[in-house]
Amino acid sequence: EAQVTQNPRYLITVTGKKLTVTCSQNMNHEYMSWYRQDPGLGLRQIYYSMNVEVTDKGDVPEGYKVSRKEKRNFPLILESPSPNQTSLYFCASRAGTGGNQPQHFGDGTRLSIL
Amino acid sequence: GENVEQHPSTLSVQEGDSAVIKCTYSDSASNYFPWYKQELGKGPQLIIDIRSNVGEKKDQRIAVTLNKTAKHFSLHITETQPEDSAVYFCAAGSSYKLIFGSGTRLLVRP
Q1: Contact, B46 vs A103, CB < 8 A?
Q2: Which of A93-102, B62-71, B74-83 has the lowest mean pLDDT?
């Protein structure tokens, strides 16, 4: 089954404790992206990757890091989490690098930073 | 910067009635306009999309219209059913990114 898998689904942690949210897709997609979803703001892009070893900032990259060492994986790293990073996070992937292709989303990771 | 405005933020309709959600975008380079449905505890799922060379597209009870001159596109759901209740997002895409609207919470009353 074609899917985007995120882990963990839920996490409560404390300020400053480094965490990583993993994302894996089994569709051999070139493009992957991370979004955060906050009430009334829709989905905002954090980082995206056009292919292996190619990443770029989205609209809200501050406080986040990513890496793309393999095509299927695109982890999101919070080196020193802060309460304003409490949010619902989604990973997505799509085929090709053109913008007019459907994106497939994971089921989300709810992070609470105390 | 680029943005997408979506209205209304909430919409309540009677089962069987139609629902319309409207979006406007600012980036004239946008050429791809998908609509996503998000159910509780799930990620957004694509329900229909339209590209800039098409003015209208229909898939059963769902249709989308695009007016590139006005930078405006809309989602139409006819004969609504309770299972249509969800949050709907529009988005406008160019070569490397999608900009999402803020979402519409649709409630279909039985």
Answers
A1: yes
A2: A93-102
Q: Per CB distance under 8 Å, which residues of A are interface residues toward B?
A: 4, 35, 40-45, 48, 50, 56, 58-59, 90, 92, 97-108
Summarised one tens digit per residue, pLDDT across range A102-114 is: 889 999 999 999 9
Sign of torsion over alpha carbons A102, A9, A46, A28: negative
Question: Given this model, what pLDDT does residue B2 score?
Answer: 80
Q: If DSSP codes are grouped into helix, strand and coil, which group holds residue B27?
A: coil
Among residues A24, A75, A105, A101, which one has the least CA distance to residue B39?
Answer: A105
Could you list the mean pLDDT of each consecutive 10-residue stretch along chain A, which spans 114 residues? 93 96 96 94 92 93 97 97 97 81 92 96
Which tokens is B97 given? 């990114």
* Chain A residues lying within 8 Å of B94, measured CB to CB: 99
The separation between the first and the last C-alpha atoms of chain A, rounded to the nearest angstrom, is 36
CA distances to A41, B9, B93 from B30, in Å: 20, 23, 5
Contact A105, B99 (CB under 8 A): no
The reply to whether residue B103 touches residue A48, judged by beta carbons under 8 angstroms, is no
At residue A45, the pLDDT reads 93
